[in-house]
Each structure stands twice: as C-alpha cells, then as structure tokens.
Amino acid sequence: MKIDFKTAMHRLMDAEDVLILTHANPDGDTLGGAFALALALRQRGKRARVLCADGVPERYAFLEIPPEDDFTERYIISVDVADRTLLGKAVEESYGDRVDLAIDHHGMLRLFARESYVEPDSASACEIVYLLLLSMNTRITKDIADRLYAGVSTDTGCFCYSNVTARTHRIAADLLDRGADVAGINVLMFETKKPGFLQLEQQVLQGMQLFENGRISLLTITRAMLEETGCRDEEIDPIVALSRQVEGVRIGITFKERPDGSWKVSVRTHEGVDAAQLCAQFGGGGHKRAAGCQFDGDKDAAAQRMLQAARLLLD
Amino acid sequence: MKIDFKTAMHRLMDAEDVLILTHANPDGDTLGGAFALALALRQRGKRARVLCADGVPERYAFLEIPPEDDFTERYIISVDVADRTLLGKAVEESYGDRVDLAIDHHGMLRLFARESYVEPDSASACEIVYLLLLSMNTRITKDIADRLYAGVSTDTGCFCYSNVTARTHRIAADLLDRGADVAGINVLMFETKKPGFLQLEQQVLQGMQLFENGRISLLTITRAMLEETGCRDEEIDPIVALSRQVEGVRIGITFKERPDGSWKVSVRTHEGVDAAQLCAQFGGGGHKRAAGCQFDGDKDAAAQRMLQAARLLLD
Hints:
2 copies of one chain form a homodimer. With 315 residues, chain A is of the alpha/beta class. Chain A has helices at 5-14, 28-43, 89-95, 125-135, 142-155, 166-177, 182-190, 195-206, 223-229, 237-242, 275-280, 299-314; strands spanning 18-21, 48-51, 75-79, 101-104, 115-118, 209-211, 216-221, 251-257, 263-269, 285-286, 290-295.
C-alpha cells in the first residue's frame, strides 16, 4: 500500500538492521539514494548496507561506502525501483517479496513492497531521499551531499531535462552549500568519455535509421559493437539520450542487445509524446520522456512493432 | 574604472535611451543578458535596443525582442564583453571607445568602458544581470526569466561545469518559479543536434590528435569541414567542449579556421590547469577552465607553439 511522507519518515526512524536495494543496471540515482540513506541510518547508530544485483559500475565507484559487518537484515528498503523484476534476477529471487518500503519516483510503479512512498513528480529518487533525511534531522554531511547530488544530477541529465523543478535547483543549492563536489562529480558522470565510447557512439550514429520524416529515430547497439569498442552495458546512457537529440526527432528508440540475445529497448521522447505509454504496450514502463521495455528473439520484428506503435502515438 | 554593485544599479536606473552591446559570435549568456536588460529598462519606461555585430544566430532567435523604434543612444552598455575587440569589428569601430558601462564576469577583463562592474566569480553574466534587475525592483516576467535562464544555462554547460555555485542554482530556482521554460530552452540549446552537426562531430573526432600520454587533445575544424556539413561557426561549441571530455585529457585545444584563413583557438581544461593563463601567452584570455586566443597563418606552427606551452603548464 502507499504511505504518506510522514509515515515513510517514521519507518526510516524506526528501522533497524537495514538492507537497501537498488535496481539492476544501476545509475547514479538509485546508487546515490541508497548509499546516502545508508550513511544517514548509520549516523543514527543503525546498521545498514546496500545491495545491487550488478555491483557498482566503475564510473559510480566514488559513491560506494564501506560495507557494514555482516548482519541479518530486519528491514528492507528499495530506492528508485519501479518494479520487483528491476531488482535483477538474483536479488529478486532472494528479496523480491520481502521489501518493507519502496521509495520511488516512477509514475507507473507496480506496487511490490509492503509499503511504498512514491512521488511521481519528483525528478529523482534522491530528491525524495533528501527530503526524508532532512525531516529526520539528519546532518547532511559532505559524503551524503555528494551522493544525493549525483542522483539529482543523473536523473535530470545535469538539470537539463523537463523533469527539473524549482525544488530540484533549491535542493542542489543546499547540497552545494553542504560541500557536494559538483565539478568533480559531473566531470566523472557527464564529461568523461572513454575513447572506446566515442568509437561506439560513431558506429551507432552511422547506423541510425530515421522514419516518419525524421520524427522517429532508431539506434541499434549489438554485442559485437560493445565488444569491439570495449564498452559496457551501463555506459550507453548518453547514446540512448542522443536518440532524441537529432533535430526533428520526437521519439528516439534504442535497441540494445543483451548477452542472452534478447533486446532491451529504451525510448526517449520530447514534449507531447508519452514514452511510458508506448513502452507499456510491450509490458514495460517508466517516465513520460524516458521509458523502456524488452523483446526476446528477432530484432527486426520487434522494431517493426515498436515503430508501428510509435507512429500511432505521433498521430 | 571599476564600480561597485550599488553604483552599477544606479547607473541602470538613471540611464536613458540605452544601446546594449553583446560580444560577436554571440552565445546565450551575452544575448540573454542583453535582451533581459533591455526588457527591464523598457519596463521602467525607457527606450532600449540590443546590437550584436553578427546578428542573432538561429538557435538563439527565441531570445530576441521587438526592436525599439530608432533613437539616438545616450547611454551604452556592454554585457559579457571582456575586451573591446570582442565586440566585433564594425561595432568596435562605431562604439568601442564609447561604452559607458561594462557588465561582465571575465577575470582577465581589460577595462575598456568608462565604468565596469565585474564579478569574476559569477558563472554567467546573466547571474549579475539578474541581481541588478532584482535590486532595481524589476518585475521578473516570464520573458525576462527565459532570457536570464538561457544565459545561466549556457555558461554553466547546463549546470554541469565547475563554475556553478549554490547561488547559480538558487537563481535558476527563482527563474523557474517565475515561469522560465527550462525544458524548451534546454532542448533548443543543448538537446538539438542537426544531422550535419553530428557529421561534423564525427569528422572532427576522427582527426583528433592526442599528446603527452593522452593528456592533451588537439581538434581541428576547417572551413571545408564546416561547408561540407553545412554547420556554422557558432554551432561548434559542443565540439570544443568535447575536446576535454575524452578520458585522461587535461587540456583540450580546438583550432577552428576562420573565413579569412586565420585560426581561432579554444582551450578547455580540467581542475588544476589554467586555460586563461595558457591563452594569455598568445594574447588571448578568458576563464580558468575555458579560454581562447587566435593565430594568423600556418596552423601547424601555431599548434606547435600551443602544444609546447600546454606541456609546460602540465608539468
């Protein structure tokens, strides 16, 4: 069931021996929010640790905190996880039906936790975590500020996307006042491109297909391309973002091949086209401007279905 | 001479029939600040118009305001202009020695105006204009907020760069509250890439040279490349930014050929390397992380000189 802000705050204050789960294929928002929450709970004298099915990618290593000594979890929280399947297979099997509190900002959340605190209008999960921590009188240390800032910055494309609100900027201002290393974090997250990434970007752009007078773009990233350029799955977000940055494109669709041969599809849209609505038709979901779904088997057939649905959405 | 904030405010309040000058090859900060200031002066019942040597580029057309009927200027202000030569030749000839007030945020400003109000620590000229307008009790309308936001966003790489302060975010929050269309503006300024631009980006990256174990990058943009891809000079900023985004690069140097065959050199650096100091050795200037200079004649010889100076700076 959904709970309100105050109840969520009390749950955090009462929780003991807390396990915090992120979503698989983690980004700065789920990791930043989880580690910031763990630090805040430890500040209150509690034990807390973070678990991510895929581990922490290299580019987010700076968000990690020393793990607690082993303890048996008595309260389980997920941060930025819209659906239990997004926990990743191993984590879902162990904890999928045991989550006590989900803290999330996804509009299409299928409630899987015992209790959920959801703010669909929040640009990032970290904004919600920030407000919860403040309400608990947490001292927002530089370490906590860095992690929350990383999350806010990640999910807003560094304050560029349409989900940014005045609140987002006010929270960022406060995090900077508390010492968040904005330059260092953004250089790591947004301004560092490996030579292999630039190669991959070029390959993907060369294969870009445009449809409906350039209003729909289709990008494809195969395993072979990832292997040739030495890029990892979690590094392709900026290419996905590129899919809608081409002038005239309203819907950007990126097909990425998974190691098992299935396809992860990411959709990015501009104002007036609901990406979540498009992906929901194929069992996926997400936000209005950024959503995803998946397909097994033949890519061309899947692309045709996506394109057809995208065309209908444009009309 | 330099004047303080309060004096600058009084100058603006007393000014009549105001001509506002931007720098040539204009960006969102100089245009946003100039047009916002013009709107604010008109709100006070004054006449004001904006003059830019190069006109307003297409991507910034949304910042323009209806021109005033002709009037003879009695007070001349420059916004975001660090040196009179940056006004552009025609404007400099007519007005270079007649500027009454320069409002700027460049550290190495060579004072050319009768009076200058300079805040070198301000991330953008628009932050200064915002504070001046507030102090004059200007009603920050949506139109003014849009223009100031565009400037703040431009000069901070959408809040990504190390020049961002808590003040920057607080000002952005207030501008959003006053109706600034953050999504629309950022889509136009940061998220729209013409197919020709993507082509140019690829060509430039293919020619990228790395020196000093990859700590210095050198990009070259020729007239032929601009013509082939249909890109204009004012569109290359994201490529210049790319020069320091390659992993390991500390100093990114971009040589861009001008129509007259001379070379405009843009330098972008990471923490610990002063771009302005590097460019000052060749008669240029700018900020710590972003600066420029120019060379006539042979590009290779100029590149050698730049590289040598850059190497010394790294050591």
